[in-house]
Write a structure and sequence with these properties.
Layout (H helix, E strand, L loop, with lengths): L2 H13 L3 H4 L7 E6 L7 H13 L9 E6 L7 H10 L4 E5 L2 H10 L5 E5 L19 E5 L6 H11 L5 E6 L6 H14 L4 E5 L6 H10 L2 E6 L3 H4 L2 H10 L6
Parallel strand pairs: 1-2, 1-3, 3-4, 4-5, 6-7, 6-8
Helix pairs in contact: 4-5, 6-7
């Protein structure tokens, strides 16, 4: 979905706001933003979102309200946040920063329009029925990311000496991880590289993960395409430097 179509969708959702709400004094359409990252790490995308709304006449605080819910990398906070926004009776839900934000928003409502962004196939994830005809109350934007796993492995292989292993840092709880891990392993095998996997449950495991990568002499560590890692990027950069583990 192109940006203008996306914003038009939100405008249509706002126009569908119940008549009873319009009768109230402060009845402005409300858009809920449910995000797995922090406000700081997502600030550039939030700014782009608000600019897109402004392009079609919606200005936050003037004729539309935005209710923000940031999980800050803690997916376990998302279920309650999703229910809270649904109970707030928002006109539309915008999800991102974690696949779980869309999964849980979809579980919380079958009527409020949900607009997602994802780097994976939304059909395989069960978000929509098809790309051309999403169906239901969910639509959104899918961009290339998971499809580039083999290319990332190829790039990593070019950066290290022959015989060095390539590692993948990931969270088993992330819905895409199992499938992406298999693709990563196949891509490494096709290049004659050994694939090693460093799994973490959360940020508390980062230090031990990089220590393990250094101990196993991993040539380069590839981070799984998980927004959770983006929300902790400064910490990960510091650990990569401390343990001298080249990291993508």
């Amino acid at each position: 979905m192109k940006r203008r179509e996306f914003i038009t969708f939100l405008g249509g959702a706002a126009a569908a706001w119940p008549l009873a709400a319009h009768a109230q004094q402060a009845a402005m359409p409300v858009v809920g933003m449910l995000n797995g990252q922090s406000a700081d790490s997502y600030s550039h995308l939030t700014a782009a979102f608000l600019l897109g709304l402004k392009d079609v006449g919606f200005v936050e605080g003037q004729n539309v309200l935005i209710e923000y819910r940031w999980a800050e990398g803690h997916d376990e906070r998302l279920p309650a946040m999703a229910v809270e926004l649904v109970n707030r009776q928002v006109a539309a839900l915008v999800t991102g920063g974690s696949i779980w934000s869309t999964i849980l928003a979809k579980a919380a409502t079958s009527t409020i329009p949900i607009v997602f962004t994802t780097g994976s196939d939304p059909v395989k994830l069960g978000f929509v029925t098809s790309l051309n005809r999403p169906g239901g109350n969910v639509t959104g934007v899918s961009f290339l990311a998971a499809q580039l796993i083999a290319k990332r492995v190829e790039l990593a292989s070019q950066l290290v000496i022959k015989g060095a292993a390539i590692g993948l840092l990931g969270r088993p709880s992330e819905p895409r991880y199992a499938a992406d891990r298999k693709e990563f392993e196949a891509a490494a095998a096709a290049l004659g590289r050994k694939a090693l996997f460093i799994d973490v449950a959360g940020a508390r495991d980062f230090d031990a993960a990089f220590a393990a990568a250094a101990r196993q002499h991993i040539g380069v560590l590839v981070m799984h395409n998980d927004p959770f890692f983006n929300s902790h990027r400064n910490e990960l950069i510091a650990l990569a430097a401390r343990y001298a583990v080249p990291t993508i």
